[in-house]
Amino acid sequence: MELIDTVRSYVSNYVCLNDRELAYLTGMFELRQTKKKQLLIAEGQVERYLNFIIRGIARKFFHRRKEEMVTQFASENELICCYDSFLSGEPSTYSVDCIEPCTLLSITRESVELLYEYSPKMERMGRLIATQQFLSRENFEYDRIRLSSPERFLNFMRNNADLLQRVPQKYLASYLNMKPETFSRLKHLLKQPS
């Protein structure tokens, strides 16, 4: 029952589903448990799942030379997926792994298509979720280019302070497009009394 309540709470931000629709939706998901550091998908594989995180945190990244470039963190009540691969069926240019042990509700592309055929309300929900994901990504990219390192750091801390305790600092620095030393220095400055 807890899973259904979690799904109901999330989708109610987009559409109102009756009990029958909600049961159909939740029946499409696969409950998966992962271990810390477990890869959900590696570069070059085809993304099979769109993942809703019930518990834990995951990151999406790609390799540039010998560096891992983090482009997304997702924690409770958020989605993570290599969207380009999921939608196209082509090999992914990203990897996703679990920073903490995770409990996921995962759905395949085929099941998403069945949801869309089931009712216009499900299709509307999918469009609204995709729009929200796109806007989040656009805002992230814009801020990453326009803001200075200290501004990116402060903005991140205002909106994601909890991740500081849960995510290794080197991943946070990569996500904010700064060197770990810069991240550490900014974190230290933040702790100093004014």
Quick summary:
Helix content is 50%, strand content 21%.
In CATH, the homologous superfamily goes by the name: Jelly Rolls
User: Would you identify the regions where 5 or more consecutive residues have pLDDT less than 50?
Assistant: none
Order of helices and strands: HHEEEEEEHEEHHHHHH
CATH level-3 fold name: Jelly Rolls
Q: What is the overall pLDDT average? A: 93
- Specify the CATH class: Mainly Beta
**Helix segment tally:** 9
- Extended strand count: 8
Count of folded domains: 1
Description:
The chain has helices at residues 2-11, 19-27, 83-88, 109-118, 120-146, 149-160, 163-166, 169-175, 180-191, and strands at 30-33, 39-41, 49-55, 58-64, 67-74, 79-80, 95-98, 103-108. By secondary structure, the chain is of the alpha+beta class. It has a single domain (2-146), classed as Jelly Rolls (Sandwich). The chain has a four-stranded antiparallel β-sheet. It has a four-stranded antiparallel β-sheet with strand order 2-7-4-5. A hairpin with a 2-residue loop joins strand 4 and strand 5.
Write the layout of secondary structure elements.
Elements: H1 2-11, H2 19-27, E1 30-33, E2 39-41, E3 49-55, E4 58-64, E5 67-74, E6 79-80, H3 83-88, E7 95-98, E8 103-108, H4 109-118, H5 120-146, H6 149-160, H7 163-166, H8 169-175, H9 180-191
Properties at a glance:
alpha+beta, Jelly Rolls, globular, 9 helices, 8 strands, four-stranded antiparallel sheet, 194 residues
